[in-house]
Amino acid sequence: MRRAALIAGVLAGLFFAGAAGAVQPDEVLSDSALETRAREISAELRCLVCQNQSIDDSDADLARDLRVLVRERLVAGDTDQQVVDYIVARYGEFVLLKPSFTGRNALLWGTPVLLLLAGGAYLLLRGRRNDSKKPIPLSAEESEKLARLLQQRE
What we know:
About 60% of the residues lie in helices and about 0% in strands. Helix 3 packs across helix 4 (about 80-90). The protein has two domains: about 1-95, Cytochrome C biogenesis protein (Helicase, Ruva Protein, domain 3); about 105-154. It is elongated. By secondary structure, it is an all-alpha fold. It has helices spanning about 1-15, 30-45, 60-75, 80-90, 105-130, 140-154.
């Protein structure tokens, strides 16, 4: 029984070890509600060094600076949206792990769809063009000439 509890404890520790991410103990806010909000915001922001991790998961110095900045803004009384807007204003929309769909980036979002549609149209038209090229039958004179050539070859 004791051994099972120990194994369960170790497994639980390993399972929840990733939840802390790269947040250092000196970054954690004493107000648990603010800390929860900071974690939620940090999970949505991209580390500009790692680029495929949130700032909460990254050990990069810039990610740490962004985590601290998020917490400072929350302590100053900003709403979650104000904090995100502040970070985006300073670093651009690339800092968002899930950028929003706007008129400015519509072409970026729509390009894959446009390319698929253009490729499909090309293949469709190309297929139709090949179907319309039916062989033209030989004239009587051409048939006789072909027959003579084939007889000479034998």
